[in-house]
Specification:
The protein is mainly beta. The protein contains three helices and 42 strands. About 5% of the residues lie in helices and about 45% in strands. It is elongated.
């Protein structure tokens, strides 16, 4: 009996040994993974480098993993996986270690049920490279400048206001080649020269553009006072464009020449250069038809589906007129528009064969109200519709579609809107004075905001738009593999913008837009929804000045994934290797010293 038990025990052991040989209990093949080249341990210097001799054979598909000890994301592996059996050679890209501390990681290669290959990688540390001293060190802080500047947007996720460094108001917009260009009154010019916003010093307009509604490229100023030296002031722009016979596009921008008249400047590009086709206003208070009716200002222009251009204007009494094809002369006398409790902020839109006239009503209670519908609230936006705009009695009241921002806890101010459809969505641009406290002011300086609005195009109904601090969502991600202007941002702090010889093209450097603050020690640019692929790449920048530009992901105080240094007063292209995490991120660009940044771009290796 004992012999029989021993026989069966030996048989069981034999069967188990056989199962652990060629197959497991499920009948699967045993995977094999064998390193055929390279080392199992590497010690590297602090400079960026590559390991290119790690090779192996795998009996089936495989994947690689990196286990970091301490600092993350400083190396990448190509290819990082394989679907089929075969021989493979890896390239491991290691970013420069700017820290004095060494760092280490283990590269793990895994194939089925085979034992993992584990390769240790250690990179020595070094002190980070310091930029050269600026040619001219910062002047000592002025003790009389005590404002601590803040941003409503930096690190908050808020998309309003569009610009957090520039006071501007009275928005208008035009789409061109897929980008939306927005223009406004340059309140910042008044801010720089006066304590209160009484507008008389403003002789320039602001330009910006976007293709995602969250990151805005600042194109600088239109110096209207230099282009048209005959003006009194320049406020409240309205822009249209018309294709020309030679294939070009003519942009025609109308503006308030103070309260006296409506001026016009023109360009063949949405950012200029701009010229004045006239040496006087398009129309002003001397016109016999409109004389004595109030200020001839705050124009609103539109081009209908037949190509006919129109312009509206006025205060107290609204007017509309056809424009000639040159867009700087009227094709007939102006005609009165419905103007109950009219104040300012005229605008025209054309939707589904219907003209829409918008204006800002005054600060009264609007009693009596004889147009039907709901009586509008004070200093809010009304609209009227018509199929025959030159027939005054043809206009019908639509609604009070945008109340004063103060009624929605956004601060009371004068009211001016622009309705625009972009990328399939309707947006309402408007203004508030919420940002002025961030620059230490309470003088009535305004900023442009935007929110989505519901528009029933079939029935030509504009529903009420509720203003928000949060603003709108991006309609697309930003592509870092296309060259990007450094003047493109979702938010900034401690940044100033520098004009170049190219119209609409700006560079950035460290500074402050606040007249009562000292120059900050660092400037921050936040760019949102930036989509990277993972791995080793090259960051290219156009830079000048003796200073440093750092690039970080997702947090303002994160470790730099790349840094570039200016070499002097001449523009140079600087490239640096970097390793990036894949996915969509917020990018922070940090400027110190006297660095001036023009463009940046990530390049695939």
């Amino acid at each position: 009996m004992l012999r029989l038990k021993l026989f069966f025990a030996a048989l069981i052991i034999s069967l188990l040994s056989g199962c652990s040989g060629g197959k497991d209990t499920a009948g699967d093949r045993v995977s094999t993974l064998e390193q055929t080249g390279g080392l199992t341990s590497y010690t590297l210097g602090p400079d960026a480098s590559q390991i290119e001799d790690i090779s192996f054979t795998a009996s089936e598909g495989w994947k690689s993993y990196v286990s970091y000890r301490g600092v993350l994301g400083w190396l990448s592996v190509e290819p990082y996986a394989g679907k089929d059996a075969g021989a493979y050679t890896l390239t491991v890209t290691v970013a420069r270690n700017k820290s004095s501390e060494a760092r280490s990681a283990t590269l793990i290669i895994r194939c089925g049920n085979a034992s993992d290959l584990q390769i240790s990688i250690v990179q020595e540390g070094t002190e980070p490279e310091e930029p050269e001293e600026p040619e001219e060190p910062d002047e000592p802080d002025d003790p009389s400048k005590t404002t601590v500047v803040s941003s409503l947007k930096l690190g908050t996720g808020m998309a309003n206001p569009l610009l957090d460094f520039q006071f501007c108001a009275d928005p208008t917009a035009i789409e061109y080649e897929g980008r939306l260009y927005v223009y406004g009154t340059n309140d910042h010019q008044q801010y720089e020269e006066a304590e209160k916003n009484s507008y008389e010093k403003i002789k320039s307009l602001v330009m910006m553009s976007t293709d995602d509604m969250v990151n805005w490229t600042y194109h600088g100023l239109i110096p209207v006072g230099e282009i048209a030296p005959w003006i009194i002031a320049s406020w409240a722009p309205s822009i249209i464009s018309v294709p020309q016979a030679d294939g070009s596009t003519l942009f025609s921008l109308y503006f308030s020449n103070s309260g006296w008249g409506t001026g016009v400047i023109q360009a063949k590009s949405p950012v200029g250069p701009w010229t004045s086709p006239l040496n006087t206003s398009l129309i002003d208070g001397n016109n016999e038809t409109v004389k004595g009716s109030g200020a001839i200002f705050d124009p609103g222009a539109v081009v209908d589906d037949s190509g006919q251009a129109w312009v509206a204007f006025g205060s107290g009494q609204g007017w509309i007129a056809k424009l000639n094809p040159d867009l700087f002369s009227l094709a007939g006398k102006p005609v009165k528009l419905p103007s109950s409790y009219h104040f300012e902020a005229n605008e025209l839109n054309f939707i589904n064969g219907t003209y829409i006239y918008t204006y800002n009503n005054d600060w009264s209670d609007h009693s009596p109200w004889t147009w039907g519908g709901t009586r509008p609230t004070m200093c809010s936006m009304n609209y009227f519709t018509s199929k025959t705009p030159l027939v005054t009695d043809s206009w019908t009241y639509g609604a009070n579609y945008f109340k004063n921002p103060g009624e929605n806890d956004m601060g009371y101010t004068n009211n001016h809107t622009h309705l625009h459809k972009y990328q399939g969505k309707w947006y309402l641009f408007y203004q508030t004075n919420l940002m002025q406290s961030c620059l230490g002011s309470d003088g009535g300086f305004r900023s442009i905001y935007v929110d989505e609005v519901d528009v029933d195009e079939e029935n030509v109904v504009i529903h009420e738009c509720i203003p928000t601090r949060k603003g709108v969502r991006a309609v697309k991600d930003l592509d870092p593999y296309a060259k990007q202007s450094a003047a493109t941002s979702a938010a900034t702090l401690g940044i100033i913008f520098n004009a170049t010889d190219t119209p609409g093209h700006m560079t950035v450097s460290r500074g402050t837009p606040c007249k009562t603050a000292n120059k900050p020690r660092a400037g921050f640019i936040e760019v949102r929804n930036v989509t990277f692929t993972a791995g080793g790449q090259t960051l290219s920048c156009r830079i000048k000045g003796k200073g440093k530009v750092s690039f970080r992901l997702d947090k303002q105080d994160a470790s730099d994934f790349a840094s570039v240094f200016g070499a002097g007063n001449e523009w140079t292209e600087q490239e640096v290797s970097c390793t990036l995490e894949g996915g969509t991120h917020t990018l922070y660009i940090v400027l110190t010293g006297n660095a001036e940044l023009d463009t940046w771009q990530v390049i695939h290796r």
